[in-house]
Amino acid sequence: MKYHDVVKAKFIERPNRFIARCEYAGEVITAHVRNTGRCRELFIPGTVVYLEKSANESRKTGFSIIGVEKGKRLVNIDSIAPNKVFREAVESGLELPGLDSVTLIRPEKQFMDSRFDLYIETATKRALAEVKGVTLEENDIALFPDAPTERGVKHLKELAKAAAMGYEAYVVFIVQMKGVSSFLPNVRMHPEFGSELKKAFEAGVHVLCYDCHVGKDFLSLGDPVPVVLI
Which of 34, 40, 26 is nearest to 70 (CA)? Predict the structure, then answer.
């Protein structure tokens, strides 16, 4: 996926989870943060950030933060991007375990009490996929979640039910950076999520993880990342 009108700025502070103050072109501006996660290890005063200019001239925040430099890495923080990137890859022929020759992809599928990111069909199978963006990295290991997620736990439980009903079910972790060595559930932050992820896997849910190619104005799916279940 591509971004447009991207500029470089410096992060100053994040008064709340929706906005940040940045220095751009010698002025302090307010930018929308496209990620409601904590991202504490990313948003450090003085850090270089990348902003996309809004096409809506009447919007209160004229820019949105889409990327943050973390050492030598550029981390995409746009929470909408992982779903788009994964869908683009599937539409371009990404092979998923248990499926071949995808004939239909639809967004936002209601199943039981959850709404899943993608509904996929082949000539003989139906599938549900939930996509999770990952921006937390420690010692080259990608971790999710960065805050407790009861919604995420519910998704895992209902994906397990879908698998029991004959669906191919997927939880897909999209690491919004390049160069991580593996992915682990962040059991220090949310032990229940880690245990439910393992249960879901044992119930037949496919647990997939990919890194991304990240540029200041683009994001695309990269390579599979090994998943370590605890």
Answer: 40
Write out pLDDT tens, residues 198-230: 999 999 999 999 999 999 999 999 999 999 997
Sorted by where each begins, the domain ranges of the chain are: 6-76, 81-224
**Which CATH fold would you assign to the domain 6-76?**
OB fold (Dihydrolipoamide Acetyltransferase, E2P) (2.40.50)
Q: Which residue has the tokens 């698998």?
A: 163
- Write down the pTM of the prediction: 0.95
Average pLDDT, the chain: 95
* Cα distances (Å, whole numbers) of residue 157 to 32, 154, 191, 199, 205: 33, 5, 15, 8, 10
Closest CA to 77 of 157, 141, 162, 11: 11
